Known about the structure:
The protein is an alpha/beta fold. The protein has a single domain (about 5-130, about 185-245), classed as Spore Coat Polysaccharide Biosynthesis Protein SpsA, Chain A. It has nine helices and eleven strands. Strands 1, 4, 5, 6, 7, 8, 9, 10 and 11 form a nine-stranded mixed beta sheet that branches. A hairpin with a 5-residue loop joins strand 8 and strand 9 (about 155-160). The radius of gyration is 18 Å and the shape is globular.
Amino acid sequence: xxxxxxxxxxxxxxxxxxxxxxxxxxxxxxxxxxxxxxxxxxxxxxxxxxxxxxxxxxxxxxxxxxxxxxxxxxxxxxxxxxxxxxxxxxxxxxxxxxxxxxxxxxxxxxxxxxxxxxxxxxxxxxxxxxxxxxxxxxxxxxxxxxxxxxxxxxxxxxxxxxxxxxxxxxxxxxxxxxxxxxxxxxxxxxxxxxxxxxxxxxxxxxxxxxxxxxxxxxxxxxxxxxxxxxxxxxxxxxxxxxxxxxx
Length: 247
């Protein structure tokens, strides 16, 4: 049976919203909400929070979660997942897949994590992620919303902050006739692939778009996608927090 480790990266020093993991959303911290949602996914056999800060570490312990302390110079969520995985591997080394669940998405649904987990029943899948259809021009033109093109095998071809594909003939085509997808930031990696990804040097495409998954594509790794019909609300700024606490 395939064994899956769920890891929630949660760093304290967010550029736009420091300490947001501990921000309250209707009486519960954001990190507790993410943890409880992920813990409800039956596909995950063990779940941990990977953090660089003792306040988050202690809070996760207090609500009954499992924290792992990681370094504070890590460049990405993938690297933080790998550092946490190395610690877990010392005591339990038979995980087949690691699923990276974003620590700032408190409304992630267990079935969305399950979708990513199910991708790995196909032994050819190296990396998996979620995508969602979008026809919103505001999202397509928002550089903070990452867009993705996939091929007929549901493998990602490219990710971009720009609207892709570009509509050349807007008189014959419009945003309602072209299929657009946005990326939903939940990743799964086979453990042997995760070990390879963190060894890769930063790539030119990654630098251009500031998207680490382009490093993987540029180095020949395949990213399989699976579609969700539900939006995930991420909390990037204090204004985002205010919006969700009012709903």
